[in-house]
Amino acid sequence: MQAKKIATAILMHGGKVLILKRSELVGSYRGKWAGVSGYIKPNETALQAALREVQEETGIGRKELHILASAAVSTPDRQLGIDWQVAAFLFAARRTGIKLDWEHDGLAWIRPAEIKGYQTVPRLAETLQLLLAAMEKTAGNL
Fold it and tell me: What is the pTM of this model?
């Protein structure tokens, strides 16, 4: 199985999280709901990749984001023969206005519990729960 490193960013605003519907033009998981995602480029950190992808896919810049949590998740996909090595981030976003690029053809701001009602990329619900738990743990340590 081939390992591929990606960064995934989930944006949060007012207790809701942003999920994006992948367009028919992307290479994998067409029509599935996901966070903002993309490959981590050589000489780029996972956080840099996440911030770049958020800017490219939503139009929201790094100055409009505040990191709340991060987690590492391995998501093997036997059908594709890929082990997705996911660096996941949860960001607070200052706004909800999104400018979608070609990679997505829909968006929804949902309560975290509502994610189970969407057909998502593999392990998105579990990744979101990990991020929310990490955020709660961090808040409890303040």
Answer: 0.91
